[in-house]
Amino acid sequence: MRKLVVLLCLLLKLTILVPMKGSAREVTYPNNDLLISLEETAQRLNEEHFIIVDTRSEGYTEGHIPGALPFDAAQLADKSHPVDGYLIRAEEFERLMNELEISNDDEIIVYDDGDDTAATRLFYALELYGHKKVRVLNGGLKAWKAQGKEVSTTPSEERKGSFKANMQANLEVEQDYVKASIDHPNKVLFDVRSKAEYMGEDVRAKRGGHIPSAVNLEWKKVLEDGEVPYFKEASVIDQMLEEAGVTREKQIIIYCQKAERASHMYFTLRLMGFEHLRMYEGSWEEWGNDPDTPMVNPSQQ
């Protein structure tokens, strides 16, 4: 009997309800706790340490989830760093979180419109700097509105917060590490930009193309098509990743142009149960502007 109870608890933990045109379907992911449903979010709005963060750059005053704190994710870019878009370091991140009045013991729910990279950029930053309880709202604000849930124009109430960063240095890799990982049998360089960027047709740096041996799957392919961008079912995402050559037994090094889209794929892979993840923060913004790094440009072949 005890084993049956444990099994039922595990099944409940791995299940999330995704509303579909007024109904709901059950969707499961290996790390389902990282994704929060609209229903659970709505039920827990008044909990003291349940903190919702609206990461959109605009639109907060026009309407947000009740009680949500406003945070423009553009603040996560270090304007003093030579690589455009590079994530701020621990001291500055700590300052921003304290200004937001977040504490280390808070459970943080991040959202954007659902088809953006702002929420997952903050998700990654929080994990990089040691926060253990952070989740993403499935479908974002578009899903919230589509289900007719309450939207507020009232600013959030002031609260006390105390955040201390504890950097998880193993999550981040630099250019030399990436160079040494080219054609490595146990590592996958994962380019999550568009196919046109990967092929060198859409050039957003001094050079176009991709890092040698890198595989490609565009970040937004993991989201449902349609008005509400829920995550696709786990089996569909698994198949796409496998076809791209991204498998769980290897270390996955993720990059895009400025690490924003890479942060979204980082979250997706965490959701899917991948454990050996690394982020190349410099991404193509650094690699493509460095004349000495090796590259492949299929459009010129």
UniProtKB/TrEMBL annotation:
- Organism superkingdom: Bacteria
Do you know which SMART domains this protein is assigned to?
Answer: RHOD (SM00450)
Against SUPFAM superfamilies, the record matches this protein to: Rhodanese/Cell cycle control phosphatase
Q: What is this protein called?
A: thiosulfate sulfurtransferase
Catalysed transformations (reactions) = thiosulfate + hydrogen cyanide = thiocyanate + sulfite + 2 H(+)
Task: Specify the species.
Answer: Alkalihalophilus pseudofirmus (strain ATCC BAA-2126 / JCM 17055 / OF4) (Bacillus pseudofirmus)
Broad enzyme group? transferase
Q: Which gene encodes it?
A: rhdA
Q: Which of UniProt's keywords are assigned here?
A: Repeat
- What PROSITE patterns does the database record attribute to this sequence? RHODANESE_1 (PS00380), RHODANESE_3 (PS50206)
Record keyword Ribonucleoprotein present = no
Which Gene3D superfamilies did the record assign? Rhodanese-like domain
Location of the Rhodanese domain: 46-153, 183-296
Under Enzyme Commission nomenclature, its number is 2.8.1.1
